[in-house]
Amino acid sequence: MNNPLQMIQMVNQIKNNPMSILSQFGIPQNLSNNPQDIIQHLLNNGQISQDQYNNAIKQAQSMGFKI
Amino acid sequence: MAYGNIFPASYQPLGYQQPQQMQQIQQPQMMQQPQPQLSQNNPMVWVQGETGAKSYLLAPNTTLPLWDSESQTIYLKSTDASGMPSMKIIDYVIRDTTTTQVPIPTENNNNNFVTHEELKEFEKKIIEEVKSHEQSVADDSDGKPNKK
Protein backbone atom coordinates (compact mmCIF):
# COMPACT_ATOMS: atom_id res chain seq x y z
CA MET A 1 0.00 0.00 0.00
CA ASN A 2 1.82 3.10 -1.23
CA ASN A 3 -0.93 5.67 -0.83
CA PRO A 4 -0.71 7.34 2.65
CA LEU A 5 -4.30 8.54 2.45
CA GLN A 6 -5.48 4.98 1.79
CA MET A 7 -3.45 3.79 4.78
CA ILE A 8 -4.92 6.45 7.09
CA GLN A 9 -8.39 5.48 5.93
CA MET A 10 -7.67 1.84 6.73
CA VAL A 11 -6.26 2.67 10.19
CA ASN A 12 -9.35 4.76 10.97
CA GLN A 13 -11.58 1.94 9.76
CA ILE A 14 -9.82 -0.54 12.07
CA LYS A 15 -10.02 1.94 14.97
CA ASN A 16 -13.74 2.39 14.50
CA ASN A 17 -14.46 -1.26 13.78
CA PRO A 18 -11.65 -3.66 14.78
CA MET A 19 -13.48 -6.61 13.28
CA SER A 20 -13.13 -5.03 9.85
CA ILE A 21 -9.52 -6.26 9.70
CA LEU A 22 -10.90 -9.81 9.49
CA SER A 23 -12.87 -9.03 6.35
CA GLN A 24 -9.75 -7.45 4.85
CA PHE A 25 -8.17 -10.93 4.95
CA GLY A 26 -11.33 -12.82 4.07
CA ILE A 27 -11.73 -14.26 7.58
CA PRO A 28 -15.30 -15.10 8.59
CA GLN A 29 -16.46 -13.00 11.56
CA ASN A 30 -17.61 -16.09 13.48
CA LEU A 31 -13.96 -17.15 13.90
CA SER A 32 -13.01 -13.89 15.55
CA ASN A 33 -13.24 -15.17 19.12
CA ASN A 34 -10.58 -17.86 18.70
CA PRO A 35 -7.12 -16.97 17.38
CA GLN A 36 -6.36 -20.69 16.82
CA ASP A 37 -9.37 -20.94 14.52
CA ILE A 38 -8.27 -17.85 12.61
CA ILE A 39 -4.75 -19.26 12.09
CA GLN A 40 -6.18 -22.65 11.06
CA HIS A 41 -8.44 -20.85 8.56
CA LEU A 42 -5.42 -19.02 7.11
CA LEU A 43 -3.45 -22.30 6.90
CA ASN A 44 -6.34 -24.15 5.28
CA ASN A 45 -6.75 -21.48 2.62
CA GLY A 46 -3.03 -21.17 1.90
CA GLN A 47 -2.96 -17.55 3.06
CA ILE A 48 -0.06 -18.47 5.31
CA SER A 49 2.29 -21.41 4.73
CA GLN A 50 3.26 -24.09 7.24
CA ASP A 51 6.81 -22.67 7.23
CA GLN A 52 5.53 -19.20 8.08
CA TYR A 53 3.51 -20.66 10.95
CA ASN A 54 6.51 -22.71 12.19
CA ASN A 55 8.73 -19.63 12.05
CA ALA A 56 6.17 -17.56 13.93
CA ILE A 57 5.90 -20.22 16.65
CA LYS A 58 9.70 -20.42 16.92
CA GLN A 59 9.90 -16.66 17.21
CA ALA A 60 7.21 -16.65 19.90
CA GLN A 61 9.05 -19.42 21.79
CA SER A 62 12.31 -17.48 21.61
CA MET A 63 10.46 -14.52 23.15
CA GLY A 64 9.40 -16.69 26.09
CA PHE A 65 5.90 -17.71 25.06
CA LYS A 66 4.99 -21.30 25.96
CA ILE A 67 3.52 -23.21 23.04
CA MET B 1 33.42 27.33 -26.98
CA ALA B 2 35.12 24.07 -26.35
CA TYR B 3 33.32 21.45 -24.28
CA GLY B 4 35.38 19.15 -22.17
CA ASN B 5 34.55 15.51 -21.72
CA ILE B 6 31.56 15.47 -19.39
CA PHE B 7 32.01 11.75 -18.62
CA PRO B 8 34.44 10.56 -15.96
CA ALA B 9 37.75 9.16 -17.14
CA SER B 10 36.70 5.64 -16.23
CA TYR B 11 33.59 5.83 -18.42
CA GLN B 12 33.34 3.40 -21.27
CA PRO B 13 30.25 3.13 -23.39
CA LEU B 14 28.12 0.05 -22.79
CA GLY B 15 29.11 -2.74 -25.11
CA TYR B 16 32.80 -1.96 -24.77
CA GLN B 17 33.05 -3.05 -21.16
CA GLN B 18 35.80 -5.45 -20.27
CA PRO B 19 34.77 -8.90 -18.96
CA GLN B 20 36.25 -7.99 -15.55
CA GLN B 21 33.97 -4.97 -15.31
CA MET B 22 30.94 -7.06 -16.23
CA GLN B 23 31.87 -9.43 -13.42
CA GLN B 24 31.99 -6.52 -10.97
CA ILE B 25 28.53 -5.41 -12.09
CA GLN B 26 27.08 -8.90 -11.82
CA GLN B 27 28.64 -9.69 -8.43
CA PRO B 28 26.40 -7.53 -6.22
CA GLN B 29 23.34 -8.93 -7.97
CA MET B 30 24.45 -12.47 -7.15
CA MET B 31 24.99 -11.51 -3.51
CA GLN B 32 21.47 -10.15 -3.27
CA GLN B 33 19.93 -13.53 -4.02
CA PRO B 34 17.67 -14.53 -1.11
CA GLN B 35 19.17 -17.07 1.23
CA PRO B 36 17.01 -20.08 2.18
CA GLN B 37 15.56 -19.74 5.67
CA LEU B 38 17.23 -21.78 8.38
CA SER B 39 13.99 -23.25 9.61
CA GLN B 40 13.30 -24.84 6.23
CA ASN B 41 16.58 -26.73 6.42
CA ASN B 42 16.17 -27.51 10.07
CA PRO B 43 12.49 -28.28 10.60
CA MET B 44 12.84 -29.25 14.27
CA VAL B 45 9.73 -28.04 16.00
CA TRP B 46 9.61 -28.18 19.80
CA VAL B 47 6.40 -28.44 21.80
CA GLN B 48 5.68 -28.72 25.49
CA GLY B 49 4.04 -32.07 26.16
CA GLU B 50 1.18 -33.78 24.39
CA THR B 51 -1.12 -30.81 24.87
CA GLY B 52 1.39 -28.61 23.05
CA ALA B 53 1.48 -31.11 20.18
CA LYS B 54 -2.31 -31.32 20.04
CA SER B 55 -2.66 -27.55 19.87
CA TYR B 56 0.02 -27.19 17.17
CA LEU B 57 -1.69 -26.25 13.92
CA LEU B 58 -0.98 -27.86 10.57
CA ALA B 59 -1.99 -26.99 7.03
CA PRO B 60 -3.98 -29.70 5.16
CA ASN B 61 -1.95 -32.61 3.70
CA THR B 62 1.00 -31.95 5.98
CA THR B 63 3.10 -34.20 8.19
CA LEU B 64 5.38 -32.70 10.80
CA PRO B 65 7.43 -34.31 13.57
CA LEU B 66 7.02 -32.38 16.82
CA TRP B 67 9.73 -32.87 19.45
CA ASP B 68 8.72 -32.83 23.09
CA SER B 69 10.96 -30.52 25.11
CA GLU B 70 9.89 -32.18 28.37
CA SER B 71 10.39 -35.88 27.57
CA GLN B 72 12.01 -38.16 25.00
CA THR B 73 8.95 -38.22 22.76
CA ILE B 74 8.24 -37.34 19.15
CA TYR B 75 4.69 -36.58 18.04
CA LEU B 76 4.28 -37.37 14.36
CA LYS B 77 1.34 -35.16 13.50
CA SER B 78 -0.38 -35.37 10.12
CA THR B 79 -3.41 -33.84 8.50
CA ASP B 80 -5.47 -35.19 5.63
CA ALA B 81 -6.84 -33.18 2.70
CA SER B 82 -9.73 -31.89 4.81
CA GLY B 83 -7.36 -30.77 7.57
CA MET B 84 -8.35 -33.55 9.98
CA PRO B 85 -5.37 -34.14 12.29
CA SER B 86 -3.98 -37.48 13.48
CA MET B 87 -0.98 -38.12 15.67
CA LYS B 88 1.43 -40.98 16.29
CA ILE B 89 3.42 -40.85 19.52
CA ILE B 90 6.96 -42.20 19.44
CA ASP B 91 9.03 -42.67 22.62
CA TYR B 92 12.73 -42.89 21.85
CA VAL B 93 15.75 -44.04 23.86
CA ILE B 94 19.16 -42.43 23.54
CA ARG B 95 21.72 -45.18 23.01
CA ASP B 96 24.65 -45.20 25.40
CA THR B 97 27.60 -45.67 23.04
CA THR B 98 30.04 -46.71 25.79
CA THR B 99 28.11 -49.89 26.69
CA THR B 100 26.93 -51.01 23.27
CA GLN B 101 30.19 -50.71 21.36
CA VAL B 102 31.31 -54.03 19.86
CA PRO B 103 35.09 -54.51 20.09
CA ILE B 104 36.65 -54.39 16.67
CA PRO B 105 39.58 -56.78 16.17
CA THR B 106 42.78 -54.86 15.66
CA GLU B 107 46.37 -55.84 14.96
CA ASN B 108 47.14 -55.83 18.68
CA ASN B 109 44.40 -58.36 19.32
CA ASN B 110 46.11 -60.82 16.93
CA ASN B 111 48.66 -61.57 19.68
CA ASN B 112 45.95 -63.47 21.54
CA PHE B 113 45.75 -66.15 18.83
CA VAL B 114 48.00 -69.25 18.70
CA THR B 115 49.91 -70.02 15.52
CA HIS B 116 50.16 -73.53 14.00
CA GLU B 117 53.81 -73.79 15.00
CA GLU B 118 53.07 -72.88 18.60
CA LEU B 119 50.27 -75.44 18.67
CA LYS B 120 52.55 -78.21 17.31
CA GLU B 121 55.22 -77.40 19.89
CA PHE B 122 52.61 -77.52 22.63
CA GLU B 123 51.40 -80.88 21.28
CA LYS B 124 54.98 -82.23 21.37
CA LYS B 125 55.43 -81.08 24.97
CA ILE B 126 52.18 -82.77 26.01
CA ILE B 127 53.21 -86.04 24.30
CA GLU B 128 56.60 -85.91 26.00
CA GLU B 129 55.00 -85.27 29.37
CA VAL B 130 52.63 -88.20 28.86
CA LYS B 131 55.48 -90.49 27.78
CA SER B 132 57.63 -89.51 30.75
CA HIS B 133 54.66 -90.07 33.05
CA GLU B 134 54.05 -93.53 31.53
CA GLN B 135 57.75 -94.34 31.94
CA SER B 136 57.72 -93.33 35.59
CA VAL B 137 54.61 -95.45 36.24
CA ALA B 138 56.30 -98.43 34.54
CA ASP B 139 59.46 -97.91 36.61
CA ASP B 140 57.43 -97.74 39.84
CA SER B 141 55.69 -101.01 39.02
CA ASP B 142 59.11 -102.68 38.42
CA GLY B 143 60.25 -101.51 41.85
CA LYS B 144 62.95 -99.37 40.38
CA PRO B 145 63.43 -95.84 41.68
CA ASN B 146 61.87 -93.03 39.74
CA LYS B 147 64.23 -91.27 37.38
CA LYS B 148 62.62 -87.93 38.01
Strand content of chain A: under 5%
**Largest sheet, strands/sense/barrel of chain A:** none
The rough form of chain A would be described as: globular
Biggest contact: A-B, 17 and 18 residues
End-to-end Cα distance of chain B: 136 Å
Which regions of chain B contain 5 or more consecutive residues with pLDDT less than 50? Answer: 24-30, 33-39
How would you name the oligomeric state of the polypeptide chains in this document? Answer: heterodimer
How many strands in all of chain B?
Answer: 4
If strands are numbered along the chain, what order do they take across the biggest sheet of chain B? 1-2-3-4
How would you sum up the major sheet of chain B?
A: 4 strands, mixed
Low-confidence stretches of chain A: none
User: What does the radius of gyration of chain A come to?
Assistant: 14 Å
DSSP, total strands of chain A: 0
The overall pLDDT of chain A, averaged over residues, is 84
Fraction of residues in β-strands of chain B: 15-25%
Going by helix content, strand content and strand pairing, the class of chain A is: mainly alpha
Task: Write down the secondary-structure element order of chain B.
Answer: HHEHEEEHH
Would you kindly provide a written description of the structure presented here, covering whatever features stand out?
The complex is a heterodimer of chains A (67) and B (148). By secondary structure, chain A is mostly helical. Chain A has helices spanning 4-16, 20-24, 35-44, 50-62. The longest helix of chain A has 13 residues, at 4-16. Chain B is α+β, with helices and mostly antiparallel strands and 148 residues long. Chain B contains 5 helices and 4 strands; from the N terminus they run H-H-E-H-E-E-E-H-H. A 4-stranded mixed β-sheet of chain B has the order 1-2-3-4. The chains are: A mainly alpha (67), B alpha+beta (148). The interface between A and B is medium-sized, with 17 and 18 residues.
